[in-house]
Amino acid sequence: MMVIFFNLNHKDPVLRDIFNDKRFRIAMSLAINREEMIDLVLLGQSEPWQISPLPNTPFYNEKAAKIYTEYNPAEANRLLDEMGLEHGPDGIRLRPDGKPLQLAIEVSPDVPTWSDMCELIVKYWGDVGVKTAVKSEDRSLWEVRTSSAEHEVSVWWGDGGLAPLIIPQWYLPVSTASRQAPLWGLWYQSKGQSGEEPPAEIKKLMELYDRAIATPDPAEQKQLFDQILEAYTENLYVIGTAKAPDRFCVVKNNFHNVPDPMMTDGVCSPAFVNPCQFFVK
């Protein structure tokens, strides 16, 4: 329903170090009360979910879907303490340079529920000492800022649940659409001519992805993508919130061959449902 990404390419070296520490990302995930969020914003019509292929796909992995989705502020605080992010006199944690750890979540108003979910995240992260504010901005500005690594934290759809090899940007940076690391994505997209060279562990994921999309063997594709998913599970490069609730579609009585249920997923829809076979009678 909504993915949260910290800018791993942030220009502030202190924030970059914090964001690139997986303990921080895991702590921020554990600090979110997803069950409460689902009840308050999504009317209970969902379940906690990380970025992960859906159960009706060959790439599904239950561990990847559910890891670090439990609400555990005590463990979140322990991890932040372990990082040395001490509380200041006002209860806000301090960065290593002594400044308050204050973040802004940039959100486009395209989806009204996102702003409500982000306001709850402000509360949850504040409870573990990370002061956060929601910054709503026009989508065109959001696109420019997040694709050029000008943001701290932002959110977007968690697409790619049905076709992760076609929409892979949340599992590894493959373009500037990978807002968790757009400069690494630009490096990959430009074959090293632009952007910023990623660390070795990210390069390995890129190599696995290249092999996965090159092979015609579904079993080999799954084996390669499983390695990418295992790295995501270990490092939580982006944070998921909740599985997207089911949607309802109105189909006229004389309009036929519309599957029930009908699958949708980002840029792949409506190809899944074979629309060339629709007909009116």
Describe the 3D structure.
The structure is a single chain. With 281 residues, the protein is α/β, with parallel strands linked by helices. Helices cover 37% and strands 9% of the residues. The chain contains ten helices and seven strands. The strands form two sheets. Strands 3-2-4-1-5 form a five-stranded mixed β-sheet, sandwiched between helices. Strands 6-7 form a two-stranded antiparallel ribbon. Helix 2 packs antiparallel against helix 5 (73-82) and helix 9 packs antiparallel against helix 10 (218-235). The chain starts with a strand and ends with a strand.
Q: TL;DR of this structure?
A:
By secondary structure, the protein is α/β, with parallel strands linked by helices. The protein is built from ten helices and seven strands. Helix 2 runs antiparallel to helix 5 and helix 9 packs antiparallel against helix 10.
Give the secondary structure arrangement, pairings included.
Layout: E1 3-6, H1 13-19, H2 22-30, H3 34-41, H4 62-66, H5 73-82, E2 102-107, H6 112-127, E3 131-136, H7 139-147, E4 153-156, H8 182-189, H9 200-214, H10 218-235, E5 239-240, E6 255-256, E7 279-280
Parallel strand pairs: 2-3, 2-4
Antiparallel strand pairs: 1-4, 1-5, 6-7
Helix pairs in contact: 2-5, 9-10
Essential attributes:
alpha/beta, 5-stranded mixed beta sheet, 281 residues
